[in-house]
Amino acid sequence: MDVVTRKVRLAGAGPMKLAIPVSTLALETRQRTTIENRLDRTTSIPGANQMIEDHKKKFKSAVHRPTGPCRTYNCHGLTFAARRTWVGGGPVLTIINEDDYKEISYREVVAGDIVVYYAAGHADHSGIVVQRDGFGPLVLSKWGECHEVIHRTGDCPYSDCEVKFYRIEK
Amino acid sequence: MSPKINLKEAAETLSVANTLPFLLRKLRADSSIPAIRGTFTPEKMLSELEEMRDSIPETYEEKAKPYVFLISLFLSEDVDRFEKAARLQMPQFEWYADLAAALLSSSTSTTSVTFSVSPQITSAPNPLIGAQSYSTFEMSPTVRKQEQQSQASTSLLILPGGK
User: Fold this and answer.
1) Which of A92, A104, B85, B114 could lock A108 by a disulfide, CB 3.0 to 4.6 Å apart?
2) CB-CB: which of A40, A47, A145 is closest to B58?
3) Percent of chain B with pLDDT over 70
4) Which of B16, B62, B94 is facing A157, going by the closest CB pair?
5) From the candidates B7, B9, B14, B19, which should be mutated to test the interface with A, based on the most A CB atoms within 10 A?
């Protein structure tokens, strides 16, 4: 377990250094490639809850789940690691290739498939399709350090990305 | 007292950043960057960053501040000050070290060389050479101060046509 020293402020005290555990989980693809990750249990800043409220006002038609804020996991950690840990964008392409994901067309998408948002070749965001109705897919995703949101594919802070959908069949 | 820069947009970006490329891409296009560059000299940007070393952010605006200042300093092309800023230890700003490393690795050094090439022109032109003209490869030498950079690329400007 690594230890990260962070400067924190405790009530009634001045700033002080605390050792906060940051760890890595043993995570692998089906082909046993290690997936780099970071489990950071640092407490979120006081302003995080206000930021979530701001996001709720901006994205009114989304369903904002009563989760977060936290740095324990991010969008890729939700999509590929069952919320256990924070996974950066780097391992995503490896996971997709080695875990037997198959790219599918927008027309084929149904609940249970996943969506990855790309910009300049980087996997900036991902989520799980939880429903499809007449207006298209609804995606469950974690928005960075903030909370989980159920939203339309393009109704999120990552709407300038190109989206691709994937499915594991076996 | 430092002029106030609007960091609302940068704060929102930071709060939803899942990956470093997203954060870097969005912050580089943030409206606070030109505002900072128009307000602060590189020396002052570095000074602001050094003051943030011991700060503990409580809002996302406070958290975003070192990132936009670092990017602004990078874009100012003051290599010495940027490298000093990149070395600052600020673990309370989780993306700082990675952002600095990404900016450092994205900068490249260029070295230009001047030379001329003039192929022989004979009375019986060689059809393989083509027209009786030659091209001069010429560019003004500029060397960017990047002693620590491990790789350099040579840029070449080709001026077509006779001279």
Assistant:
1) A104
2) A47
3) 64
4) B16
5) B19
Q: Tell me: the pLDDT tens digits for B109-146?
A: 555 556 666 655 444 444 444 433 333 343 343 334 44
Q: CB–CB of A47 and B59 under 8 A? A: yes
Partner residue opposite A7 with nearest CB, options B59, B61, B92: B92
Rounded to the nearest angstrom, the minimum Cα separation between A101 and chain B is 21
Cα separation, B135 vs B18, in Å, equals 50
Tell me which chain B residue has its CA closest to the CA of residue A144: B16
CB-based contact A75 B63, cutoff 8 Å: no
- A156 contact partners, CB below 8 Å, separation of at least 6: A59, A62, A125, A139, A141, A143, A149
Using alpha carbons, select from B44, B72, B78, B60 the residue that is nearest to residue B9. Answer: B60
CB A135 within 8 A of CB A69: no
pLDDT for position B106 = 84
- Per-residue pLDDT, A19: 55
Question: Residue A158: CB partners within 8 Å, gap ≥ 6?
Answer: A117, A124, A125, B16, B22
ipTM above 0.85?
yes
- Cβ(A136)–Cβ(A153) under 8 Å? yes
State phi, psi for A139 to the nearest 5 degrees.
-115, 135
With a cut of 50, list the residues of chain A below it in pLDDT: 1
Cβ neighbours of residue A126 closer than 8 Å, sequence gap 6 or more: A75, A76, A78, A79, A80, A92, A114, A115, A116, A117, A141
Task: Return the residue matching tokens 């302003």.
Answer: A47
Give the residue with greater pLDDT, B63 vs B118: B63
Q: Which of A26, A30, A122, A40 is nearest to A74 (CA)?
A: A40
Which candidate from B13, B21, B56 shows the least CB-CB separation from A120?
B21
Contact B56 A7 (CB under 8 A): yes
pTM: 0.79
Give the pair of three-digit tokens for residue A55: 């996001």
